[in-house]
Amino acid sequence: MTLNEQICTIAIAVLTTMASRFLPFVIFNSKKPTPAFVSYLGDNLPPAILGILVVYCYKTQLLHPNYDTFLAAIAGLLTVGVHIYKKNMLLSILVGTVSYVAFVYLT
What we know:
The chain is an all-alpha fold. It has helices spanning 3-27, 36-63, 67-86, 89-106. The chain starts with a helix and ends with a helix.
């Protein structure tokens, strides 16, 4: 890539990133209420995406079962248990990630 191509690529990346950050504030200004559909998506998409990721990860584990599948199930159950007990998403994700990595590292 030439220097001009690199500069153009970086400029396009910067402009598209800035547009994706600033465009919602231009479209949904504070003078008008946020549309109900957008609020609905904001409330329901994060848990839906997390659910899809969990299903995908376990599906790929089940397609190629090995000892890690059992460890992933234990880490997943730990994550669910901590989340039910503490109701803290960050702590739940941290416990699940650390437990799975520790299980894999120790075996």
